[in-house]
Design brief:
CATH architecture: 3-Layer(aba) Sandwich
Strand content: 15-25%
Bound molecules: adenosine-5'-diphosphate, magnesium ion
Strand order of the largest sheet: 3-4-2-5-1-6-7-8
């Protein structure tokens, strides 16, 4: 299994952060040493571990822009899970880099160049990303070894899935030919909804035709689940191992591991 896995797409609210924190929970429980790198200025991963990102003195931004060693910005948040969090100043990253391009001749390679020392310290590095395609996402896709793409089935979502898959493929060809597109995972699925089933079927057909993997596992929608995890201050895979949605994360991880053998 590749070590550096990002969860990337151009949308918000499709479970990117939930997938990152819950997969981290499962891997950590199985004894793997995991680093989560949160590159989204909203810093939701810190929040999902009950931490307030406004309290952090040093964050990913300082590592990327001021060349602070990444170890200084990394904290332990659970047994076997370290976090390199972003913070609000990540909103300045793109502007800082693009307005000072002489200092950053390879603007997509800043993450890869500044985070190298972390690689040998972990079994897995999971990267959470912002809900757009820009300089941050480009840095992540240059740094990652594989990418997982969440897909929420809605009326018009096929069109944007086709676009994001094209965008990631083009980016890979130009900037990171080694990048392994793990595949598409359906999220927030209500299997009783005909629309969801239809759109997921379209998605499977499209992926099939275009040689893109689509996971059998989907992450079901559950408003009750979302409400209960909000109080836990830990990802559900660490607090509620028997929950059906946790089981979905478990089978997603199994499929990822299976596919990479
Ligand atoms: N299985 C679920 N069903 C419904 N809502 C969920 C589920 N899991 C998480 N949520 C909620 O959905 C929202 C978006 O999830 P999040 O992982 O933050 O998405 P993203 O990182 O793509 O913006 C969050 O408020 C989260 O609590
Ligand atoms: Mg998020």
């Amino acid at each position: 299994m590749n070590k550096i896995i990002s969860v990337s797409t151009q949308k918000g609210g499709v479970l990117k952060s939930s997938i990152v924190s819950n997969l981290a929970g499962l891997l950590a429980t199985s004894g793997k040493k995991v680093l989560i790198i949160d590159t989204d200025a909203q810093a939701n991963i810190a929040l999902s571990f009950g931490l307030n990102p406004d309290d952090f003195n040093t964050t990913l931004y300082d590592v990327l822009i001021d060349q602070i060693p990444p170890e200084y910005a990394t904290m332990n948040v659970h047994k076997n899970i370290d976090l390199l969090s972003s913070g609000e100043d990540m909103t300045f990253f793109e502007f800082d880099v693009l307005t000072n391009i002489k200092k950053y001749p390879q603007p997509f390679r800043i993450m890869k160049e500044t985070l190298g020392s972390l690689y040998n310290q972990y079994d897995f590095i999971l990267v959470d990303t912002p809900p757009n395609l820009g300089l941050v996402q480009g840095n992540v896709l240059s740094y990652a070894e594989s990418v997982l793409i969440p897909f929420q089935p809605e009326g018009y979502s096929m069109r944007s899935l086709v676009k994001i898959l094209d965008a990631i493929n083009n980016f890979r060809d130009q900037h990171n030919p080694e990048l392994n597109v793990l595949g598409v995972v359906g999220t927030l699925v209500d299997s009783r909804t005909t629309l969801h089933s239809q759109v997921l079927q379209q998605c499977r057909a499209y992926c099939n035709e275009n040689n893109i993997h689509m996971f059998e596992t989907v992450i079901p929608r559950s408003v009750r689940f979302a409400a209960s995890v909000a109080y836990e201050r830990k990802p559900a895979t660490l607090t509620d191992p028997k929950h059906p949605i946790v089981k979905a994360y478990f089978s997603l991880l199994e499929e990822i591991q299976e596919g990479e053998k």
